[in-house]
Amino acid sequence: QVQLVESGGGSVQSGGSLRLSCSTSGFTFEKFAMSWYRQAPGKQREGISCIGSGDLRPWYRDSVRGRFTISRDNGENTVYLQMNSLKPEDTAVYYCATDLRGVCINYEHPDYDGMDYWGRGTLIIVSS
Questions:
Q1: Which has the higher per-residue pLDDT, 123 or 54?
Q2: 3-state DSSP: the chain helix, strand, coil percent, rounded to 5?
Q3: C-alpha closest to that of 127 among 90, 95, 94
Q4: How far is CA 106 from the centre of its chain?
Q5: What is d(CA 106, CA 84) in angstroms, rounded to the nearest whole number?
């Protein structure tokens, strides 16, 4: 049974940093790409970053590129999202997700929202 559990959310002032973690179980983590999504109040959910199984070049949405860094620890079955220079518009519920592919589908389909497995999300509030 695939399980994804996010942690690390909270409140931070504009310009601050947070690190999200997503602990996983129920599948062979090292073989599959992992993604981070977010849903801001009143907006559709959007993918923001993805890291492939062996890919050294993660994918980032333009709005977070240069500020957010995705990484993974295959020994801990965990994917991380380091978020720096946070802005009020980063306020959202953040989700980790996977559709058990080895590569990131977001490269060709940036607005893909068809992941098979989702965590419950963690809320981030960035105040100005």
A1: 123
A2: 5, 45, 45
A3: 90
A4: 12
A5: 22
CA distance 85 to 67: 6
Q: Taking 70 as the threshold, does the pLDDT of residue 55 lie above it?
A: no
- Report pLDDT for 54: 78
Q: Which residue has the tokens 């940093």?
A: 17
Would you say the C-alpha torsion 72, 77, 78, 79 has a positive or negative sign? Answer: positive
**Token output for 44:** 């559709």
1-22 per-position pLDDT tens digit: 999 999 999 999 999 999 999 9
Backbone torsion region of residue 86, taken as left when φ is above 0, otherwise alpha when ψ lies between -120 and 50, otherwise beta: beta
Determine the Cα–Cα distance for residues 99 and 90; give it in Å rounded to an integer: 24
Tell me the torsion sign for CA atoms 90, 95, 99, 102: positive
Report the 10 Å Cβ neighbour count for 95: 23
Backbone angles phi, psi at 97, to 5 degrees: -155, 160
Mean pLDDT of 106-122: 93
Specify the amino acid at residue 27: F
